[in-house]
């Protein structure tokens, strides 16, 4: 299999995360723009559309960039892979750095496209209403959601699974998770997706939810991802590979056809 440098892989992670943040949270802003003054601003149909926006962009990123970096585009996924020795710890800072830089680029892209409307409408941030849902419930929702996501990723990229469907399955499970826990926490499932729109909103003078970021949107995701990876190893005893998504979505190049004489 063709090898890519750490720099190339970090750039691929940045590009993939930028696309995820631009399209995912961007679809939230777009839905709110279209909703205008209607109440509630986000309805069931809007939630379905937003979930499909996330699912489709993740599927596209997996097929486009998986062969380069594995297309983690999520610090929690990288952490879970490293915790179970599927990914080298020494490369984790480069991947996390790429993901955060890419997330910021995507968030600034939302601001550039929608102008100050993006700041006024919250930049597609994830947050939960503590008057409706408990902190424990929100933490559990994000942890379980990320656990399901990571478990599905490991299952579909296992060499014994029909892994040519990896992008569709990963994108599809994101759609399902968002439909369930989106009304509770916004279904971040990704610390970079949670952090970067909030930072750009702060830069633009908009609303922020910093007190929720670490306890609800960062730590549960990291823990949930690692637990899913350990649980998968315990149940399925898979063949451990360095970058399972990269292996799953990469096909060997066919030999060039002989030229007829």
Q: In terms of topology, how is this protein built?
A:
Elements: H1 6-35, H2 44-69, H3 75-83, H4 92-114, H5 116-120, H6 135-157, H7 166-185, H8 191-203, H9 210-236, H10 244-249
Care to give the gist of this entry?
The protein has 261 residues and is mainly α. Helix content is 70%, strand content 0%. The protein has one domain (6-249): Glycerol uptake facilitator protein (Up-down Bundle).
Q: What labels would you give this structure?
A:
mainly alpha; disordered C terminus; 261 residues; Glycerol uptake facilitator protein; 0% strand
How would you sum up this structure, described in words?
The protein is mainly α. The protein has one domain: Glycerol uptake facilitator protein, CATH 1.20.1080. The chain contains ten helices and no strands. α1 crosses α8 and α4 crosses α8. It is globular, with a radius of gyration of 18 Å.
Q: Classify the helix fraction into a percent range.
A: 55-70%
The total number of structural domains is 1
State which percent range the strand residues make up: under 5%
CATH topology: Glycerol uptake facilitator protein
| Broad structural category | mainly alpha
**C-alpha Rg, in Å?**
18 Å
Low-confidence stretches: 257-261
Give the SSE order as H and E letters.
Answer: HHHHHHHHHH
- Inertia-based shape: globular
User: Main beta sheet: strand number and arrangement?
Assistant: none
* CATH class term: Mainly Alpha
What value does the average pLDDT take? 89
